[in-house]
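Handoff note, outgoing to incoming analyst
You'll be picking up this chain. Sequence as last confirmed:
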Amino acid sequence: MTFIKVIRWTGVGLGVLVGVANLGMLGHLSKPGTNQVIPPTINIPEGPYSSYRVQATRDGYEIEYRANDPLVLNSERSVNVDSERRGLFGGGSSSRTEHRTDQYTMDGNRNISGGETTEEGKSAEDIECIVADAGSRSQGAMAGSAVATGVLVPAALSIPYVGWLAAGWATLLGQNIGSEVGSQVGSVFNDC
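Most recent structure output, in case you need it:
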């Protein structure tokens, strides 16, 4: 009988110990302020133009960090333009107001709507520059071929036997040179 008593008292002791531990744990968890979500300590680099926002919930936390905030500076201008019409039907004057809105980066460069990219990885600025370059090359090629047709082709046609071939080469040469010049002029005017 002594062995059975030892087992009973051991079971009773373990039951009392587990019960007291459970009551202590419930008392600790039911204290006010212990269910608060505390975000982890993260050292976010701060500068004169940085901003951040931390949102912590029971499911996790979310950090929004902007290293260069504000991203752009806006500049709005309105200019009164007075012009005097000249031409075939005489003079006259007109007055109009032009409004211009520009965005500048922090470095002072003018923003040409180039933040977002397409699937191919090209920004809107790159696409605008490609389209502007194509138009400039086309206009330059037409002007170059017109000048070559007026200046070089008459001289090339006077060459015996191969004048017709030389005239075609002269037109192509004028077209190629005009295309290159048009591309360079277009890149200057379109800020590309």
